[in-house]
Structure formats: structure tokens, C-alpha cells
Amino acid sequence: MHTTQRQISRALAAGALSVALLSAGSAGAFATEAKPTPSPTMSARPKPKPSPTTMASISVKANTTSVKPGDSVTLSGRTSGLKVGWPLVLQHQKGGKWIPLKATAKVKNGSSYSLTAKLSNPGTEHLRVSAVGKKVYSPTVTVKVS
User: Fold this and answer.
1) How many CA atoms lie within 13 A of 123 on its CB side?
2) pTM
3) Residue 108 pLDDT
4) Hey, which bits of the chain come out as E strands?
């Protein structure tokens, strides 16, 4: 069997074309499977922790520390970091848990609030004001009901 120069050229051209098609196909396959490496702009940025000046807080002061059963106590104070109109609720401690009472208020212009609650059960009441929907509480105020 005798091969001509033309046949050899065709075989080389077909082989070169096959190699080119295969390498282009594999490069495309690798390109679709390759995952980009995260850059500093793509990575998740840590959320900044709020500074003490931007954290919400509630102060509280009772108008009296002792009432008779059925009498009312008024609690007032100022908030920080809560928007005007934010709802507040009075809570009392019962059995180690904080239970909301019916006394509510909203943050007013100037970040102040005032709420009144009728205390009926004799004993010592531990009260605090809570921002609804947030984990922000005033310090505890103690009122003796006797």
C-alpha cells in the first residue's frame, strides 16, 4: 500500500482539526464548570456591631414606690434609639417570667413616654417597660402594693 503526499496531508489536517475541536470543547466545558474565586467585594461583609451610642435603651421612673390595691402607678422616662411612635408595654415579673400588662404607650416627640397601670394584687411588684418587637427593656422598678 502506497500513501501519497495528498493523503498524508489530509490525515494530518483531519487530526489537527480533531485536536482543535476537542480542546475547544473541553475548554468550554471547564469554563462552565469553573467557579469564580471570591474577591473582597463578593465575599459577605461582616455586619458592623452597633456602638453604645446607637443601641436602644429605655429609662424609667415611678411616681411612687408604694400604692394600695386598686390604685394606679405612673411610670415615665425617655428612650434612646427608638423612633417616635414606637409602641411600649409595661411588664411585671411573675414566677420568674416577664408578663405584659394592659398598660401601653408610644414614644413621643422628644423620646419621652408615660404610662399608667392599676395594681390590684397585694405584694411587691417588679415592673419594667419593654419596646414591642425588640429586646430592649428598662431597668426594673419595685412598687409595693399593700
Assistant:
1) 8
2) 0.62
3) 95
4) 57-58, 61-62, 66-67, 72-80, 87-94, 97-106, 112-118, 123-131, 141-145
